[in-house]
Amino acid sequence: RTEKAAAIRAKREKLRRLEEEQARVAQEAKNRLSQQQEKKKRETIPEQIDQHSSPPSKISSAAKGSQNGDPSGLSPDPSTLIPQLSETRKLLRSTAPILAEVGSGLGA
Predict the structure, then answer these.
(1) Of 25, 20, 2, 7, nearest to 95 (Cα)?
(2) Where is the composition biased (Polar residues) (predicted)?
(3) What integer pLDDT is reported at residue 63 of this predicted model?
(4) What percent of the chain has pLDDT over 90?
């Protein structure tokens, strides 16, 4: 009985870690997407700033990027988001059987 409870606890912990990882990957993808949209918006709006001064939008973008481990401040190519999304799908698929097992363990 205690072994069964310990196994259920271990599976719940594993599930929690997988959910956290999935949430983190999703948040990173969302951040990259918003950075790309912001960059695209800046490129399409003609800048009316003296060419000798650096536009504040680029400065803040570079500062944001360096916080995220991207010193250039530029967003990655959209093609890098596709593998991350498929990785997220794999994580979600791998959690389904664990959820089912934990659920059946609770009913027993």
Answers:
(1) 20
(2) 77-86
(3) 47
(4) 29
**DSSP characters over 67-79:** HTT-TT-PPPPGG
- The count of residues in the chain is 108
What is the radius of gyration, based on Cα positions, of the chain?
A: 21
102 contacts 12 by C-beta, under 8 angstroms:
yes
In which residue are the tokens 């991350």 written? Answer: 84
- Give the angle 98-101-106 at the CA atoms, nearest 5°: 125
Q: Considering only CA atoms, which of 15, 1, 6 is closest in space to residue 96?
A: 15
Apex CA 16: angle with CA 12 and CA 19, to 5°?
A: 135
pLDDT for res 52: 47
Stretch 78-100: mean pLDDT, rounded?
79
